[in-house]
Amino acid sequence: MGLSLAERFARLPVEERIAWIAQQPNDVLVQIARGEWWWTSRPEQIPPPGDWFIHLALAGRGWGKSRAGSEWLIQRTQDHPVDRHGTPTEWLVIAETLADARTICVEGPAGLLRVLERREIKYKYIKHPKPMILVGDAATKIYFEGADDADVGRGYNAAGAWLDEICKWKYLKASWEEGIMPSLRADLLDDHPRVFVTTTPKPVDLIREWVAREDGSVSLVRGSTFDNAANLSAMTLEEMRKRYEGTTIGRQELYGELIENMDGALFKYSDIEAGRVTQMPELEVSRVCAVDPALTGEDDEMGIVIAARDPKNHIYVLADESTMGSGRPAALHAWRAFAKWGCDTLLYESNLGKVWMEQVLSDAYKELIKSGLFPERSTPPMRSVDSKHGKKTRAEPVAMRYEQRRVHHVGRFELLENQMVEWDPMVAADSPDRLDALVHAVRHLMAGERREVRIHTPTGRWLPNVRSTTSPFG
Predict the structure, then answer these.
(1) pTM for the full model?
(2) Residue 112's domain spans which residues?
(3) DSSP element (H, E) containing 316
(4) Are 247 and 277 within one domain?
(5) Which pLDDT value is given to residue 57?
(6) Is 167 left (phi over 0), alpha (psi -120 to 50) or beta?
(7) How would you classify the pairing of strands 345-349 and 286-292?
(8) Which of 179, 171, 162 is nearest to 93 (CA)?
(9) What is the domain count for the chain?
(10) Model confidence at 456: pLDDT above 80
(11) 461 pLDDT band (50/70/90 cuts)?
């Protein structure tokens, strides 16, 4: 990729640098001294001219996406402080969560406040109840939202938006189509509302759709972490090379490639995405809480996944309640997740390395009886799962269910899904804890299809399945 003017200047001989500086007016020298964006930005960080609606920056971590988004949005507020009717314009900044919008997009080292202060633009930052920035004498408004539901952005009359890390959003396509896109309707002078999207890519439907467009409505730039090496820690870059170089996940996370499927992985992101839903049917047959315990210290992770099966034998992953820790604290957390989600059975693996888990879980259950979470004199509704077969063998039928579009994630579970698509059983024999818990849950619910009992009525019709009521609280 290209070099910034500052980098190009630094490569000139000393004599040429001195001569060039001597020719510049004072205001230019002041802007250079404070690191204005025209001086420090690389060419690919600035959206191109043209009549595009969406500028999509698919780039690796550390490429400078946040800085590019901040600089672009502030410049847009300066170019369009009011609309055609003289009304102050509204702008949207939306991240995965409102906390991300605040800490990264507003207050972060590459956030909007840094840009405003460097450029000495008048502004007022309102922190509560939601962050908002009023810019300039016209009091142009920048609103901040977290992408918590499909209605995010609804109700605004926006002149433009910066959407950050959209591949992590829970309801991306619905959020764009139902909330954000219809709100981009301000009537601007000599232009139209535009959107700057900054994200590390994943093969989600909306990204695929935008990348495939050929009508000029989408402008696309790709970039690598290493394009911004001049502004990043050399030691960190070297560690990232060691960790990711030559891997498929490295191509995605460092080089910003849109990877459909990881080499050697059993699970494909495209299968997960194709089966994703916003809610499961009301009727269900069984709901389980599957745990895969950590084996050693407090820094280990216990995988805890909640899943359910409907009468049509489709399986729905409802939650990833995984937690850092082991032993009693993790066991208590697992039972609380069990109760929170109204599960029927708690599943745990009882191989030679984890035989202690049954006793720890049983003791934790009894402790929670005393606190009133479970009924008196009830017994722990838990079941051990078969660990005779290897990790790959156990995971293969689960991966097949995903290919058949019979497993559905209700929402988005980034850490779990990353473990799924990154695990190559030929390279790493041990699978991560969240993935193990998922496999336990889905295999148990699949086996339940064979154990299913149906009642034949006198009229010759099968009664519909009903959910198991083995839960200690009914």
Answers:
(1) 0.66
(2) 41-253
(3) strand 315-320
(4) no
(5) 96
(6) alpha
(7) parallel
(8) 162
(9) 2
(10) no
(11) very low
